[in-house]
Amino acid sequence: MMGGKEISERNYVLESRNQYQQFSEDRGSSIDSRENAFDDMSELIVNEEDDKKSSMHYASFNFINSIIGSGVIGIPYALHQAGFGFGVLLLVLVAYITDYSLILMIKAGHISGRFSYQGIMEAAFGRAGYILLGILQFVYPFIAMVSYNVVVGDTVTKVIIRLTDIEPDNIFAKREIIVLIATIFITVPLSLYRDIAKLAKISFFSLVCIGFILLSILLRIRTISKIVPDHPDSWRFFNSDIIPAVGIMAFAFMCHHNTFLIYSSIADTSQKKWETVTHASILTSLIVSCIFGIAGYATFKAYCQGDLLENYCWDDDLMNASRILFSIQILLTYPIECFVTRGVIENSIISKDPNVPMSERTHYAITLSIVFTTYFISMATDCLGVVLELNGVLAAVPLAFVLPAFCYLRLEEGRIFDRNKLPALGVAFFGLSVTTLGVIFLFMDIDQINQCSHGVVMDYCSLRYLNVTQNSTEI
């Protein structure tokens, strides 16, 4: 999103399930352990010091950490899709709607007395709402895992070619082989863990990686932008691919699965405190996303790809370091997404009691099926932008905009067109429009699914090499 949210990037220190359930009971909720069985954060709860509640500042930090992740790497491409000027405005709009939808979720929680995403969906729409949410919470991390494989295939192959000086057609420079090796030796062993606490410190490491990548991008603006040729579509204010751009941006800001758990971590929490935390977190995330997007676009302009790191030259060792860090980050995030996806299958399809451990045989079978299915799907395309768009319009937009707004509209007293409900109605309409049009456009452009430049040295990189050679000759 990259998911994800490059979820990512959405990972926290473990706390026991009982503490979260106690929070629900204190507010008169009817939540049980089954209700939260496939919430990816029900096992990854913010915790400052063991049993202590956190301050608003600490909650904001963790919320920011859950938002900023692998999805930001696609923001420059989204700005290209929508047009630079309009894209920036669209990014601000998506951030604003995300902020409002997060506030709506907590309002719905107070109205219903159910302080979980599953709880408010079930309170508003019964068992059907619970099942629908389960499907979307399966689709989101599943496609995120596919995107992670695509990124590994994009980045690691280039680094290996650079470090070993092997030919691009060598078997160990093939993305299919590299992703398969990473799957067998890294993602499978980590995904087979039952206790996700072993991966709890990924959250901080994720921020370190993103910070290093951002610094690298800023350092390369001046040198790389000089060799990138002019393009007639560069710096255009408006382009027509608005819907795919919204999908990518929604994926980058996706954090709604964490909402109630971060809310529950705040000491003496209230709606007013939550709004303060949300405003601060979304604003900070928007600033970081804008820096990423503008810096990346200023460097490559109309040549921006879905994976920004694809734009950099293969012999750029600073960016190769960024590629390695980014790959490590998502490889460590992958098993957390697998944990969520497996939880949906166990508790919604198999209908297992979450308090009863699943047999080793079933656990292994489900995990391996998920991991290798995502592997084979990821081999169908090497274009990260398409995968981010798909996850954005199919899962992120409904989870972030449509369902929170519908829950509030259904639970709040009064007619649907009452003045206090109009903003929520607007959010729901916006989300439904993006999802519907996004699916239509993806099918219309299905023939362009593999039109990206993976595995090809960009022309301007060859130009840079020639310039360096000429300068050396002159000296």
TrEMBL record:
It comes from the Eukaryota. Its main location: membrane. The chain crosses the membrane at residues 61-79, 85-106, 127-151, 171-192, 204-222, 242-264, 276-300, 324-345, 366-387, 393-411, 423-444. It is found in: Membrane. Residues 52-443 form the Amino acid transporter transmembrane domain. InterPro entries: AA_transpt_TM. One of its GO terms (molecular function) is L-amino acid transmembrane transporter activity. Keywords: Amino-acid transport, Membrane, Transmembrane, Transmembrane helix, Transport. It is a multi-pass membrane protein. GO terms for cellular component: membrane. Belongs to the amino acid/polyamine transporter 2 family. Putative sodium-dependent amino acid/proton antiporter. PANTHER family: AMINO ACID TRANSPORTER (PTHR22950), SODIUM-COUPLED NEUTRAL AMINO ACID TRANSPORTER 11-RELATED (PTHR22950:SF458). This is Putative sodium-coupled neutral amino acid transporter 11. It comes from Dendroctonus ponderosae.
